[in-house]
Amino acid sequence: MPPVYSATPTACRARGDGYAGSVSVPEQTVPALTVSTVAIDDVESTLELLPPRRQLLWLRRGDGMAGFGEAARLEFSGPTRMTDAAAAWRRVAAAASVEDGIGVPGSGLIAFGAFAFSDHSPATSVLVVPSVVLGRRNGRAWLTRIRAGNDIDAPVPSTRSAVHSAPVAFTAGALPPDAFLAAVDAALNRIDGVGLSKVVLAREIVGRLTGPADTAAVLSALATGYPDCWTFAVDDFLGSSPETLVAVTKRTVTARVLAGSAARGTDAATDQQASLALATSAKDQDEHQYAVQSVLAALRPHSPGVTSSEQPFTLRLPNLWHLASDVEGTVADGSSSLDLIDALHPTAAVAGTPTPAAVALIEELEPFDRGRYAGPVGWVGGDGDGEWAIALRCCQVEPDGTVRAYAGAGIVAESVAEHELAETSLKFRPIVEAFAG
Ligand SMILES: C=C(O[C@H]1C=CC=C(C(=O)O)[C@@H]1O)C(=O)O
């Protein structure tokens, strides 16, 4: 029987590959994982290897990892979901036996993860340890096999042609456009620059997969359409995020903070104008600075010298311009990437400033649970290093084929509700177009 693992029985449960149910077991019981990584010539077209559903993927500019099968699964919920995950992962890593012949970020033991936005979310937060990982980074490729207990090695996947599902049409979900406009106005009435300076409000759109429910083609469309974003998939939660919440590599910590957006121009001249207008907009600079300061404040206790670029730059995506700042520091207290996502989440790019007031207003004005939207999504290695994005431009595909996508916008005193609504429409574009077939 595959291993069953619970880091803290009240908050988390886990199961091995093929296990039909979940059982709480004592804290000391951790899966004994055997991990072996070997160098391979190259990974041919990762995207063509993906299974139809429940893919594990982390990819940017062709580099990254795809996971196959499930050697172990850890589930968490509630306000301590990230600290529980950090503690559980330390125990899993300490109990694992690892042979890593390549030693690059992502080789050896890894788990793919996604965490719910809200402390009260019914959505589970997960770390999934795959049975097989194919990875590529900076011209080096590898194959990792991970076995739980006496399980036999899982097969290495072979290429297949993804079956394009019928185009999915999205309609307004909870908080349709008119209600979103009203919610933004309500938020503007509450922004006083003291008790609340910024809040990020999101809305939902809903579609349904019909026919063959193969979402590998959706991931291909996202990865090719948005190559500079992190294309991710964990537990049928998929998307293409431009925002790095935190990356930790051998004590170096980095982040890319985004906040402040503008539509792309329709030709080179208007596009440049749009970028310039964004760079010089006081409203967007304010919105951006709240997000940068929230990241610096959260990282400082762990990385006292952490800094951000002096001025934000404009980041060009196919659908939008964003104001962006890169952050860098050195981890001084041994924090893992999971410790740091716990420290950072939720940043002012997805919640607001100050955080408690913004989160309370989100709960009041958004009539839906965000699930894993705007939560951390990424991967962690056996040494605690890892890369985590904020889950943006994403959707959750539910078991019955319902697809729920979310997009939000930062509201500050100078915001105009109609502009914020238009911005969310642009942010839905990656998902809407990837599902359009
Ligand atoms: C909340 C979202 O975007 C955030 C990230 C970049 C720019 C943002 C903005 O300009 O409002 C948001 O802070 C979203 O995509 O759903």
Automatic annotation (TrEMBL):
Coiled coil: none
Catalytic activity: chorismate = isochorismate
Keywords annotated in UniProt: Isomerase
EC class: isomerase
Domain of life: Bacteria
InterPro entries reported for this sequence: ADC_synthase, Chorismate_C, IsoChor_synthase
Residues in Chorismate-utilising enzyme C-terminal domain copies: 178-427
E.C. code: 5.4.4.2
Gene Ontology MF: a single term: isochorismate synthase activity
Protein family membership: Belongs to the isochorismate synthase family.
PANTHER family according to UniProt: ISOCHORISMATE SYNTHASE ENTC (PTHR42839)
Protein name as catalogued: isochorismate synthase
